[in-house]
Specification:
The complex is a heterodimer. Chain A has helices spanning 2-14, 20-40, 44-48, 74-93, 97-114, 122-135, 145-151, 163-185, 193-198, 206-212, 218-238, 245-263, 271-274, 281-295, and strands at 16-17, 160-161. Chain A is mostly helical. In chain A, helix 8 (163-185) packs antiparallel against helix 11. By secondary structure, chain B is an alpha+beta fold. Chain B contains five helices and four strands; from the N terminus they run H-H-E-E-H-H-H-E-E. In chain B, helix 1 packs across helix 2 (35-43). At the A-B interface, helix 1, helix 6, helix 8 and helix 9 of A face helix 1, helix 2, helix 3, helix 4 and helix 5 of B.
């Protein structure tokens, strides 16, 4: 029994696997970091330099390292912000992944302690977690500049340990499960009002306001909240089952696209490509191979 | 190689324990972990816990040397979408540390605001921060931000 458990553990977490799922996640993460970078670029002065209104997480104490966490002059803030872009491009292209992930993680911690702590929502934690795990994963062992320069092909690949892919999958499942459990019992999630008000609060998009003006009966909102709870309950199971995965991906993607369209929280879209963590890397390789073959113009 | 596998297995086991603990916390509000670790991992599985039927926005008044009060435009200081702006204005990380830390946070903001405004040629002898709150409306975010519906509340207690 114990021997079987040990073997299962080894097979699931420690055996080498193809890196294609991790590479897809790496490219999505790099793209998200770059999008985030452009999103905050116009506000570097406000959030990260001494020109804005921003509270450092720790009160700076004279003579201690916490002085490093006071807001720097704009020039230094811009320089560090520029390094974050280079790191994000490195991650996207798969060049020096370990180094650039460490740099990006360090800078994200730094910027968070300066200002993002006032906006540290679940997505920010997930982003950072994904960055750290992918940084250690060898996700640059295919579809990367590294493979292009070392092996002469973007599609060349080397096996990587399975645990980073498994941990990201477990975290996504745990996130949906934890969110679902809380929505099941939190008092404000027992009716559709929370959704109705979500359409008219500070996060709401113009589309959400239009939908609010349709005067839909509360029963519609009640039903939508129940549907969301069922979705959160099913996703942690269905995402693992190859037979139902495509439905889980579709339902999860629809949910996150809906949140983006109604509440503008586009950052959760990163979870959609992270579903690759649940897919056998060989299937991803086959899928992308078919896609590139179909995209290539015929020479006949 | 064997040592490496053992270390990796230990790390995975630790991660699984922390995540399971965070999952248990979502339902039972009990944890075996120190608060900062729990907060991080629980934070990755926390939806927004409730809703308000009112909008909130931080507003600042500055007292001029002549003794008159005038409103200060905070928009340049809190850029981004309305939701994100409000999220930041609440100083949630300070609020989690209690009333005293929240008060200090707003005092620091007021001090920074006074200094920054002075650099732009607007000197104030006093800065007062508060929140405007008004009912949400389907016709738009600011639709009911009218004198009859808007209250000005203390930024610390929000009352």
């Amino acid at each position: 029994m114990i021997r079987k458990a040990v073997l299962t553990w080894r097979r699931f977490f420690l055996e080498p696997i193809a890196p294609h799922s991790l590479a897809v996640m790496r490219i999505a993460l790099g793209g998200t970091l770059i999008a985030l970078w452009f999103r905050y670029l116009p506000h570097v002065d406000s959030y990260f330099s001494d020109r804005g209104l921003a509270l450092a997480y720790w009160e700076p104490q004279s003579g201690s390292l916490s002085m490093l966490l006071t807001h720097p002059p704009l020039g230094i803030a811009l320089f560090l912000y520029g390094v974050l872009l280079i790191a994000s491009i490195g991650i996207l292209l798969g060049w020096g992944l370990r180094c650039w992930s460490a740099v990006a993680a360090g800078l994200l911690v730094y910027f968070t302690l300066l200002s993002f702590h006032n906006f540290l929502a679940s997505w920010g934690r997930l982003l950072f977690f994904t960055l750290v795990i992918l940084g250690m994963s060898g996700a640059d062992r295919t579809y990367s500049l590294r493979m292009r320069s070392e092996k002469g092909s973007w599609r060349a690949w080397e096996a990587v340990p399975a645990w980073p892919q498994r941990i990201i999958a477990i975290q996504i499942a745990a996130t949906y499960l934890g969110v679902g459990l809380q929505k099941a019992y939190l008092p404000d999630w027992q009716g559709g009002e929370i959704l109705a008000y979500a359409l008219v609060n500070g996060w709401s998009t113009p589309l959400a306001h239009v939908i609010a003006q349709w005067n839909l009966p509360i029963a519609v909102y009640d039903a939508s909240v129940i549907a969301v709870k069922i979705l959160h309950g099913l996703l942690p199971i269905m995402l693992w089952m190859p037979r139902y995965q495509r439905y889980a991906f579709l339902a999860g993607a629809t949910f996150h696209i809906g949140v983006t369209l109604m509440m503008g929280m586009w950052w959760f879209l990163l979870l959609i490509p992270l579903y690759a963590a649940f897919v056998d890397p060989k299937n991803i390789a086959e899928l992308l191979k078919c896609w590139t073959v179909h995209k290539r113009p015929s020479t006949i | 190689m064997r040592l490496r596998r053992t270390l990796v297995s230990f790390g995975i086991g630790l991660y699984l324990f922390v995540t399971a603990n965070a999952l248990v916390y979502t339902v039972f509000r009990k944890s075996l972990l120190p608060t900062p670790v729990l907060r991080y991992f629980y934070g990755m599985m926390a939806p927004y816990q409730g809703y308000s039927t009112y909008n909130f926005e931080l507003v600042a008044g500055g007292k001029t040397e002549e003794g008159a009060w005038e409103m200060i435009d905070l928009l340049p200081y809190f850029p981004g979408s309305t939701g994100e702006r409000t999220f930041r204005e609440f100083l949630l990380s300070r609020r989690a540390q209690g009333e005293e830390e929240t008060r200090k946070g707003y005092e620091q903001l007021a001090g920074q605001l006074r200094r920054t405004e002075a650099e732009h040629g607007r000197s104030y002898t006093e800065i007062r921060l508060s929140f405007d709150t008004w009912p949400m409306a389907r016709d738009g975010y600011e639709a009911l931000r009218l004198p009859a519906f808007t209250r000005r509340v203390n930024p610390i207690t929000l009352e």
